[in-house]
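Holo model, zinc ion. Inputs:
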Amino acid sequence: MVSDIRNMVSGEWHAARSNISNPAQLKLSGHMLLVYGANDNRVYVQADIELVEVSQRVGSIPREIAFPDGSLFETPDNDGIDALLRHHRKKGVGVVHWLEQFRPRLIGITAAAVLLAYATYRLALPAMVELAVAVTPPMVPELMSSSTMAALDRTAFSPSELTNEKQDEIRQDFAKIAAHAEGAPEDYKLNFRKGGVIGPNAFALPDGTLVVTDELVSVAGDDLQMITGVLAHEIGHVEYEHSLRQLYRAAGLAGLVMLVAGDVGSAMEDILTQGGGLLALSHSRDAEAEADRRSVELMRAAGLDATAIERFFALMEKEFGDHDKTSMLSTHPGTPERREAIINYDKELQNR
Ligand SMILES: [Zn+2]
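Output:
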């Protein structure tokens, strides 16, 4: 930053023990402060800057520079004195005065503070999310899941119309991937529902409750592994606790501080129970990519078609395009890049 370096200040000079004021100029030359007569250019006094005493800046009260010989230079030009002394960090320069020097830079400082706060938020939020996930008692995801399931059953779902044979077939394949998932296979509970407005979809609730809609099963037709691939993806969401993370990110830093501090207000409870449902249905792009990779891993581990989920996205895109607002495609966008990433990850695992 370029500051207004000035080396000359106008004021009045009083000789020691004299009340006579002489119009004068204060000048800085190297380390020396010199006082010249404004009219005759005569040097009244000079001294090393370290040896003079500068009065502190208080509002617009004139500033006094006391020289070792007892003479005094006085000026109302506070800014001039500050500019003159700025690079000399003279002792006795008060904090208030120092702050006042910076007043013109207040906007800059404010901008810096905002940037700092933003950076802190960007760094602190993910850390707080991890902390909150770590200290979340099992009761919370269970509560989120049961209330979401109840809400969906009330508003969108109806009982599945799939035959028992079909359900069993899907369950058998599902058991193969659940066996390789984190935790016990019983932690993952597969549910069948007719999706209604939800359409062809599958999702996982944070406690390990999985739902697949009749519509999705119907889209997959005879391709059972396609369904299993989607369910493996949903297991990935559970394992990575994506819903909980999503919810905590939405709660923000303030909400998380309250939560971790153990002060769960009623507002927070509302978010946990009411907001959980909507959030459980959609994830960030990163979370989706993570769950896709998990699907490939679980399917491989179970000896099934590792890229079945890629075929599912391709099929969905062909059948529904991107018009259906509630389908698996809208909550799990199956972009060409995403399908490519799935195939590439499988190749990567093959070559290991
Ligand atoms: Zn997903």
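The two ends are 55 Å apart (CA to CA). The chain has two domains: 8-101, 137-350.
Archived with the compound record.
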